[in-house]
């Protein structure tokens, strides 16, 4: 069973629910902001048909809101899956920082939806395995090495292995920390099995499945709200917009190819957590700073005829622009992940696909508008004493 | 400005809001379960009048739900307080564990209500000081000393001071961890001032104010949902019910007299946090195991003519019954807190007050019914490997 907020083939789709009870999914949120996926996305039913025609496999879909505990509970009770892959959350940090309404919507969709799912699993399928999409952004940028979910702490002569402390950088990232706390609780107290995939920043367009039929193409967002940095830079290069580096560009994060994200989910599903185990995998393959990515895109773009400048923009986020960053990602490698490293070929293939869809690019979606701290003139409140 | 879910004199009162939009407050929740405060509680307006008659001071009340962001925002904008003391949460761990509905209600009331408050403070009163009631239960029972909110971690040759890792023991305690994460975020990113009072288990009845007029008496809950352990044991001793020790009774926690809780809030208000500071005080004065409290109550009760047995009941919670526990509580002492230690005199005074109200005791409220893990026959899922 896959619970999805996005357009992937799935059994469930979830929507966030505003106070006005509008039903919104990822596409609708983009529409609301007058942006859209660069790649044209077919309807859920079309995509399920396409998958059937290329694979012979049938996906059953149920459409509803996971905040609606009754809907979710009925679906879980009837389907009785062995594995639940939970993609059903509001996934954008900038969206969560737009207003109090979008922040509340984000935390309500993510926290209450996941809490409903935990109760349904406890009631109907306590032996099933929950695979949940977390984010590397839960950790923030601490001044120590980032471990995978837990850290052994020695303190005043005693030792314990405890949840790794979190410094989430947006109210979306906070919601993911809340989820981690609730899921860890459900494994400790109810004995559920769970794997939290703390995913880095995803880039790329094609997957092994999406290339089989053009109706299976994945979303490709390039706007400030849903687009990730490398995808954004590639679109900017094609349309001739200076690459939007925020501030000094020293922000370093973990990244991975979209093909590797799917392989990681597959590896987690094939190797389930034990009963009572809350397993955290850091799901990225390489670390880059924003400046390094901008330089890579500029160079690759130039080689295929797109000359583009790199410009520093006032950072709309409150974050350190120079910091220590070293995160562990060993556990998925141990399970057999073979990473696709980022190289010129991948970037140039993306530039080619983007050029094919160039007429769909909406220019106003490119520059950032959502400020983390609207009250501050510049740079926000984060000082060197950020952690306390 | 005091935001309250309980019956204390306050400017605001908040209610949790179920899907059916019933408006419930702490009293209504107790009513729903056919329990009530041992002490008879007057209406909010009666209590405000009583306070005016003994102190000459006027308290302005606004009644609404803090999940209703519009209501809260209007009140904050109009009152523009220098300090906000936030008591407006669903405060019961057993209540949060009764069903998926009560769990969702707890996390929604607490997380979304507090998030609304943070946005209103950022918008209208960014220089004001938030004093938030947290709980020692956020930490759980780690195998290392518990510090006040943050811990310096040395790891692979590098150091950082990071949020103390949390192991909350119920979905209510999880909601308080979520609050801590959101409030810390608001201090780091928006520069708000906040003090989180991680309170231990409160006991006692009288405060310096409540003894001035009987209409000002505080709630005294003794049921499994809202009653705390020492209060429950004292009621059990008076009505001749065996003291309900859960399991082996080795559960050790921090405790404090209700008079000290009020003094701690006052000390925090008089010594505000800095801009951008998230300050955590562990608010308890002594540590006891459940067995120690049962023995104390049995002895004190016997001296005033109540003979009562101590009985071990199957533990409805999933928790360790023997564990290391050593928590720091230095910061409030440094600000001038002079603790009222627990002694025979206090217990016997409580027994006397309880005897006066003995005819109000509802017998069925005494034994525990809410199980943390309804699926398990005994003891739940928590093993020695509880932390991971």
Silhouette of chain A: globular
Query: Low-confidence stretches of chain A at least 5 residues in length (pLDDT < 50)?
Result: 6-25, 377-388
Oligomer category: homodimer
The major pleated sheet of chain A works out as: 7 strands, parallel
The largest chain-to-chain contact, stated as pair and per-chain residue counts, equals: A-B, 69 and 70 residues
**H/E order of the elements of chain A?**
EEEEHHEHEHHEEEHEEHEEHEEHEHH
Number of helices of chain A: 11
Q: How far is the first residue's CA from the last residue's CA of chain A?
A: 41 Å
Question: What do the pLDDT scores of chain A average to?
Answer: 90
Assign the structural class of chain A, choosing from mainly alpha, mainly beta, alpha/beta, alpha+beta, or little secondary structure: alpha/beta
Largest sheet of chain A, order of strands side by side? 5-2-1-6-7-10-14
Please report which band the strand proportion of chain A falls in: under 5%, 5-15%, 15-25%, 25-35%, 35-45% or over 45%: 15-25%
Tell how many strands the DSSP assignment of chain A holds.
Answer: 16
Cα gyration radius of chain A (Å): 20 Å
Please bin the fraction of helical residues of chain A: 25-40%
Can you give keywords for this protein?
homodimer, 388 residues, alpha/beta, seven-stranded parallel beta sheet, 11 helices, 16 strands, globular, disordered C terminus
